[in-house]
């Protein structure tokens, strides 16, 4: 019987191993110089936020000091950080963006 898959003819349940990737939060940090409209544009273009969600997230960061732009696997999160920083620097803005693992 093919279900009995060891020599003692006892049944062994085989399970497929599923490993969830660790997820990383991309955080936007507040500063005094980056224009609000640039942060809203970043949230739309790089984090696929609607205009109203982008506005709410930007204002939360402005008031509270930091906020979550999105949650991704490590490589995606790090790529978005690099892309946003490059874009901000190209415009002369000091915007800070970091990725941190979820607890
Ligand atoms: N504090 C900025 C201003 O008043 C706006 C801002 C919001 C900057 C969020 C960065 O991550 C940021 N122009």
TrEMBL record:
Which residue intervals define the domain Adaptor protein ClpS core in the entry? 20-97
Please provide the record's keywords in A-Z order: Hydrolase, Protease
The record's listing under InterPro entries reads:
ClpS (IPR022935), ClpS_core (IPR003769), Ribosomal_bL12_C/ClpS-like (IPR014719)
For the keyword Protease, the answer is yes
Alphabetically, the GO molecular function entries are:
peptidase activity
Please list the residue ranges that the record marks as compositionally biased, kind Polar residues: 5-16
> What is the superkingdom listed in this entry's lineage?
Bacteria
Q: Give the residue ranges for region: Disordered.
A: 1-16
Q: Which GO terms describe its biological process?
A: protein catabolic process; proteolysis
Function of the protein: Involved in the modulation of the specificity of the ClpAP-mediated ATP-dependent protein degradation.
Family indicated by similarity: Belongs to the ClpS family.
Give the quaternary structure: Binds to the N-terminal domain of the chaperone ClpA.
Q: What is this protein called?
A: ATP-dependent Clp protease adapter protein ClpS
């Amino acid at each position: 019987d093919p279900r009995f898959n060891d020599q003692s003819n006892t049944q062994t349940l085989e399970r497929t191993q599923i490993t969830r990737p660790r997820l990383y939060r991309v955080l936007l940090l507040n500063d005094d110089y980056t224009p609000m409209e640039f942060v809203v544009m970043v949230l739309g273009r790089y984090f696929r936020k609607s205009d109203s969600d982008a506005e709410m997230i930007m204002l939360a960061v402005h008031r509270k000091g930091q906020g979550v732009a999105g949650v991704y696997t490590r490589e995606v999160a790090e790529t978005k950080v690099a892309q946003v920083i490059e874009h901000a620097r190209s415009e002369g803005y000091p915007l800070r963006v970091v990725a941190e693992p979820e607890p």
